[in-house]
Amino acid sequence: MRLRNIPGSDEVIENSLFCYNTPTEMRGKWSGHFRNNAPIHIEIGMGKGRFITELAMKNPGINYIGIEKYSSVLIRALEKQEDLQLLNLCFIRMNADDLCKVFAPGEVGRIYLNFSDPWPKDRHYKRRLTSNTYLPLYKEILNPNGCLEFKTDNEGLFDFSLETAGQNPDWTILQYTRDLHNDPMGQGNIMTEYEEKFSSRGNPIYKMILVPSKG
Ligand code: SAH
């Protein structure tokens, strides 16, 4: 998701208390930001932040960090948070490539990937957020008892992700469905902006949960 450039969005983000501009300084110290030892859950590519904001409202005992690479989108999440002032929610404008510079090993309890860019061309497969470019980064920052939850409406990306994770010995596919909204896995599901848009067009929603392999 890339919106037209919004003049001044960089300055708003730089000056917000809810957004980290130098997140590498927080590596290993995110609990200090939240002033408690609650688990830290992150969403990578949160877009306008509806999903993570709703989670943060519902689960005050969990700390949430929304990650997004474009300020033109992140500013929409920030505007909501400036009104809500949730103590358990903050944002980082960054590229997922830098995850290991921002989080220490095991610092994250759960990773959400929602409607990640499909990069449909074969030659771009390494850019997909469920490719083997990124799975090792997630493995490093994730608590060994944590999990990764991935939703998409894109069948090609879903099949690629199942195959990639299935062949990677570091990951175990715990559960998956090809029709989340008509499956027990969808109980308590929180919709993202893209999910609402695509499911209202009749597209099924796919979801998988991955966990780090044991032993
Ligand atoms: N999760 C939201 C938005 C999905 S669109 C929803 O479901 O509604 C995918 C989002 O991921 C876009 O906003 C895009 O800017 C962001 N994104 C893509 N690649 C990224 C990367 N490498 N690092 C951080 N964000 C990324």
Provide the domain count: 1
CATH topology: Rossmann fold
How many β strands by DSSP?
8
Backbone structural class? alpha/beta
In short:
The protein has helices at residues 9-15, 30-34, 50-58, 71-84, 99-102, 135-141, 155-167, 193-200; strands spanning 19-20, 40-44, 63-68, 89-93, 108-114, 142-152, 171-177, 206-212. With 215 residues, it is an alpha/beta fold. The chain has an eight-stranded mixed beta sheet with strand order 1-4-3-2-5-6-8-7, with helices on both faces.
List keywords for this structure.
binds S-adenosyl-L-homocysteine, 8 strands, 8-stranded mixed β-sheet, alpha/beta, Rossmann fold, 215 residues, 8 helices
Describe what this molecule looks like in 3D.
The chain is an alpha/beta fold and 215 residues long. It contains eight helices and eight strands; from the N terminus they run αβαβαβαβαβαβαβαβ. The chain has helices spanning 9-15, 30-34, 50-58, 71-84, 99-102, 135-141, 155-167, 193-200, and strands spanning 19-20, 40-44, 63-68, 89-93, 108-114, 142-152, 171-177, 206-212. It has an eight-stranded mixed sheet with strand order 1-4-3-2-5-6-8-7, sandwiched between helices. The mean pLDDT is 95. The structure holds S-adenosyl-L-homocysteine (SAH).
Please describe the topology of this protein:
Blueprint: H1 9-15, E1 19-20, H2 30-34, E2 40-44, H3 50-58, E3 63-68, H4 71-84, E4 89-93, H5 99-102, E5 108-114, H6 135-141, E6 142-152, H7 155-167, E7 171-177, H8 193-200, E8 206-212
Parallel strand pairs: 1-4, 2-3, 2-5, 3-4, 5-6
Antiparallel strand pairs: 6-8, 7-8
Helix pairs in contact: 1-4
Bound molecules: S-adenosyl-L-homocysteine.
Residues 1, 44-47, 67-70, 73, 95-96, 114-117, 192-195 line the site of S-adenosyl-L-homocysteine.
